[in-house]
Design goal:
- 2 copies of one chain form a homodimer.
- The first copy, chain A, is built from 4 helices and 19 strands.
- By secondary structure, chain A is mainly beta.
- The first copy, chain A, folds into 2 domains: about 50 residues, Roll (SH3 type barrels); about 210 residues, Fumarylacetoacetate hydrolase, domain 2 (Alpha-Beta Complex), CATH 3.90.850.10.
- In chain A, strands 1, 2, 3, 4, 5, 6, 7, 8, 11, 12, 14 and 17 form a 12-stranded mixed β-sheet that branches. In chain A, strands 9-19-18-15-16 form a 5-stranded mixed β-sheet, with no helix packed on it.
- The relative contact order of chain A is 0.22.
- At the A-B interface, strand 7 of A face strand 7 of B.
Chain lengths: ~260, ~260
């Protein structure tokens, strides 16, 4: 099932996406909802951010090739985490599919994409085992963890390197059925595939991250956990189109535009 | 004006606190609201967390004595920031006035309080000058940035050292009028004053933090920014009562209880 948050004629609602038709619903997507009887062609609606999470979790370093390639570039030894420690991103930075990533005028040219699988939680949960962990998941969407690498290195916090407005595209919808082991992530730059990896080939699994984090932190419906990225990104220039595709899920497409 | 989020007979609402009377309201405290005609004695209601912020900002190192005392303890030179860089905390960790801070069973004895002034935003704002910054503020409340120092040092992220469930008491209410320069913060442990500082004696002012952060990040009504703490905390033991008082604002009181 695909849940889409959309606007049409000034009204925002959740709908079920069936083929290219959006079937409007009302109610709470996590508990009880019903069809309103209205539907729209997908091409006629504005796709919104799937949701604003209560807590916005993000696994920073969770694919080994990403760490190795970054270390090679820096001429250092890869710093591979030995424990699953979750980090955070900020809600102000979220934008929807097809909205522009605005590169601030004082950013350097070191602006990179990171295509990521996003877990959407559907249940309140604390202290779950790895065996129970996947039952907390409502569905999956796609994220692009846009990063300004000069600020990321120079600053004490990630407030502008990763949390500048528009630096967190998320969408286009939430898919409740996904064969994780069959899923493949491909990032295209201006239509050309540049980064490609097995989506579930993580250092620490989704179930392990949920288990470990839940020993201390309660998850709530609508929380999200971004699962990290593999490989590296070239410098993204103004006008470039970045598409993050996860097979079985969809494509998250955003143009990068430098502020004049 | 004091806004209080409260529950009474299973119903949660915002009210105006006048003396010891809670005057119930309906509507949106940031835009339009009205009195419902009902009121309750303060002692008869359950005080709730003032709000769940959309983005939860926190200034980590913003009082010089706190940095100097921490460095003295560690036998190092104080690392005083030369720029205002905002950090983040997580929504799951918030609890209300009079609710218990639960120390996890695997935490060390190095559990500390940090009494902080909390800014509550009332307007959507981006790129504001220092002169305009204070106009974005709806009011102020009190926070206790509870920290497990062993985890804080050992872990790569703050997920459990600062964001364990119950580690972020906030309240008891939002005060819209506060004379910042007259305000004094006092933290009492079991009734005995232990930490005391001029609330507004910050390394980087509230206006400066809002100005700098807003160059990259949009603030929304209901966002909060915790402003950091001064001095140091002794190790807090199970059963200890911690009271953070800010003059002109109120007292945030929470008991610390170790999980059996």
């Amino acid at each position: 099932m695909r849940w889409i948050n959309f606007s049409h004629a000034g009204h925002t609602a959740y709908g079920l996406l069936e083929g290219d038709t959006v079937i409007e619903t009302r109610g709470d997507i996590f508990t009880t909802w019903e069809r309103t009887g209205r539907s729209f062609p997908l091409a006629s609606v504005k796709i919104e951010v799937p949701l604003i999470p209560r807590t916005f979790y993000c696994a920073g370093l969770n694919y080994v090739d990403h760490l190795k390639e970054a270390a090679d570039k820096a001429g250092t030894v890869p710093n591979i985490p030995d424990r699953a420690e979750i980090g955070y991103r900020a809600q102000n930075a979220l934008i929807a599919h097809e909205e522009d990533v605005i590169i601030p005028r004082d950013a350097t040219e070191k602006v990179h994409y990171e295509g990521e699988l996003v877990v959407v939680f559907g249940k309140k949960a604390r202290r779950v085992s790895e065996a129970e962990a996947m039952d907390c998941i409502f569905g999956y969407t796609i994220g692009n963890d846009v990063s300004e690498r000069t600020w990321q290195k120079a600053d004490r916090t990630f407030y502008r390197s990763k949390n500048t407005d528009t630096f967190k595209p998320m969408g286009p919808w939430i898919e409740t059925e996904l064969d994780l082991n069959a899923a493949h992530t491909t990032v295209k730059l201006n239509g050309v595939p540049r980064t490609s990896f097995a989506t579930n080939h993580m250092l620490f699994s989704i179930a392990h991250f949920i288990h470990v984090t839940s020993q201390y932190c309660t998850f709530y419906p609508g929380d999200v956990m971004w699962m990290g990225t593999d490989g590296t990104s070239p410098d993204v220039k103004s006008g470039d189109l970045v598409e993050v595709e996860i097979s079985g899920l969809g494509v998250l497409r955003n143009r990068f535009v430098r502020e004049p």
